Records
---
Amino acid sequence: MASDNIDLDSGADELIAKCLDLDAPQSFFLFAGAGSGKTGSLVRALKSVQARFSRELRLSGRRVAVITYTNKARDEIERRLEFDPIIQVSTIHSFAWQLIGGLDRDIREWLRGNLALEIADLRTAEAKGRAGKASETRKVKIASKTRRLERLDEVRRFTYSPTGENRGQAALSHTEVLKIATEFLAKPAMRQILVGEHPILLIDESQDTNGPLLDALFAVQAAHRDAFALGLFGDMMQRIYSDGRKGLGEDLPEDWAKPKKQLNHRCPKRVIALLNKIRGPVDAQVQTPRTRAVEGLVRLFVLPATTADKAGAEAAVAACMAELTKDSAWHEASGSKRLILEHKMAARRLDFLELYAPLYAVDGFKTGLREGSLPVVRFFTHEVAPLVRAQRADDRFAVGRLLRDSSPLLALTQDGDATDMPAALAAVRNALGELMGLFESGADPALVNVLRNIMGSRLLSIPESLQPSALRKIAPEAAHGNDEEADDERTAAIDRFLEAPFSQVIRYDDYVSGRAAFDTHQGVKGLEFPRVMVIMDDLESGGFTFSYEKLLGSKGEANEATQRLFYVTCSRAEESLALVTYSADPEAVRRNVIANGWFEPHEIEVMEPSVGISS
Ligand SMILES: Nc1ncnc2c1ncn2[C@@H]1O[C@H](COP(=O)(O)OP(=O)(O)OP(=O)(O)O)[C@@H](O)[C@H]1O
């Protein structure tokens, strides 16, 4: 057996370590293919700084900044660096807020100018546009932005939460925080603050980092190249959000280092060969498998677009994969990761659509819902569900812990008279009994009934955004607090969401926490799984951005966004990969993927709607 080629890319890490010298910093750009170990390189880069400059950074009160794409990635890097305080890891939104938070006077003036501009743009569009829904939306926006502008001086301190809803007078939106940070970074004083606090800034997944903010950071680096190193990690072939900067890396300054990586440590040989084929026409980067990599197995399953029982068809695909790979884990419910393009496809397959669809229709709820941080749902996933689970299991310790922090019944006694404790505990017992009564004999109550019950017993405090719905059900006349139309839309959506049965909360939570078999094509960026099933269904996903029918069924017509997303999903597989495509013309798919050399004839299975397999 040939010796292991694991050290093929070690030069890249050595070059990066050399760049990260506080006395002679050099910026660098490490863009390498899937599974090439960029996260590992990022962690090793930080460890090299820890080893050489910990003391110097601590004494001067400076920190290395790292920007990750998700909170999960942030947690992982913090853990791998043992939560070292000289390294500040944050998402782009919290990084931006750390830069601008507290600069209230400047923020106010920026908002004054920006709101005036936005109102003027909306008025121009309104003057040109026709009556209809778009016009109604514009009018609502003009009214609410005008109100915000008029009351701007009342805000003393602006607020922002990278994961919250950011509602109310003082709150800034996610977009505003990024725009403000970008514009403030044009000011020499702001640049000085950034460079003074963070001599090194590393950005992971920078192909998807907000383009204007990235450009602002390039400008900071150009102005402070002797005191500041910017290090970018990423892969342009994995750019999947429109926010990212097009052509990143094409116009790099001369003095930037460009370390290279060629190995793919994650995927089996057959998957790497497919990745090289997919990537070939885009940038011709070729990856090499590890010497010890397994051969692996790839199959393309082509089904008619009219297939009625898609869940059944996908189960048949899993069974076929188990057979072909002799890997029984394909049979297990969570043995493979199944990637769908649109959250609703998972909601349908996992049965939590009634909970999901109403909230997903509201723009302001989308991000929170996707991430599991939306307060109206979080109340059920993080407070009610664990309480019901703990009570069912008779786990008094867990019940006590859950209620101690969030039950108004217990808060009363904490504030004042200790002699109230027995009465408070009796009230808690009663309230718990009432709540559990809803679930008796296997009942699955609607969320609104659970909410009303808890509101009535005061077992838990109800988040502000759920109160109008909860109140209206109890006393309709008390619900009218805020009459803005945007609020009406939100409240109506919450009302509909509350009609969903409670069991959907558990399934939704499993999904957003990554415990379910399903995830989205975009959501698995950066992750890896032994067995991956990529489900491609243009009709069901209903969007315009991606077309797998064109990618697989017709030569050369696919857009690059679909090609890149396909590369991302295929490159998650560590052992075996099943590609499932629903097509209007299965034979055209077969012909095309053989002609372009992506698959061998024996790797393609054309399935009948009845779920029989004929190759
Ligand atoms: N030098 C190495 N030796 C052994 N395994 C490695 C090495 N570098 C990375 N790996 C492993 O390879 C896999 C891929 O690494 P990593 O996730 O860092 O790649 P990546 O470049 O960030 O991938 P992607 O861009 O696809 O998200 C991981 O399982 C990691 O543990």
---
Amino acid sequence: MDCGRSPPSPGLSLRIPGFAFAGVPVLGAFALELRGGETTALLGPSGSGKSTLLRMVAGLLPAPAGARIAAADGGPVAGRLAWMAQQDLLLPWLDLLGNVMLGARLRGEAPDRARALRLIEAVGLAGRERARPAELSGGMRQRAALARTLMEDRPFVLMDEPFSAVDAPTRHRLQGLAARLLAGRTVLLVTHDPLEAMRLAHRVLVLRGSPAVPVEVPVPAAAPPREAHDVAVLTAQGALLESLAEATAEAA
Ligand SMILES: Nc1ncnc2c1ncn2[C@@H]1O[C@H](COP(=O)(O)OP(=O)(O)OP(=O)(O)O)[C@@H](O)[C@H]1O
């Protein structure tokens, strides 16, 4: 199934004047353009504000005064976002098909059952439509979560450590699947995994400093998805790891 978007999704423009929780600064002031149809990976030390930024973009946290989060096509951001988290957030009492169609049901719309079935097939879960989440492995549940994210067919996709809870080979397969199915969307991917960032992202940012601001790091010349064993990917992964170590030392 071709889930890519053509033409690609619009870009997202973020201008954050800084952000604090109860007076404790978390994010510094910065402006960031997420290019349309591209995946931007965001890394940084634990507590540097990655999820905070993601939640702000998603509208789950009130943006501070003076912040601007805008779509490059002038359209709204709210209502055009899909979210995929580390926890699959599947409802245990619904089967796989019910979970994939949940968004439409919650909005009181008639779900597109044929599309849901095609997406379930695309993530390799055909034949498991009637299975409850408890009957699926962790990797299968994340694939189900990916199908549910794609079911929303939103131009903007926010992913918060989407594959961190699964084993390395499963993560590797899920990354390939996500790259194929999310092609053309504007994706902001929070991850702790430098290899994941270098495989999937057009641009890689590290939150550095205190309060933290995103700093761009070099990526291999080839367009993503990139092979994990590619020398350029491994070299970039090493450099990213060093940048993360420096960021962690700065934050300590
Ligand atoms: N609701 C909240 N109220 C107060 N402080 C918060 C709240 N949410 C997060 N924080 C604080 O804001 C800072 C940034 O948290 P955030 O979850 O964005 O970090 P992160 O980079 O995503 O971390 P991790 O990699 O561990 O998930 C942390 O110091 C955290 O304790």
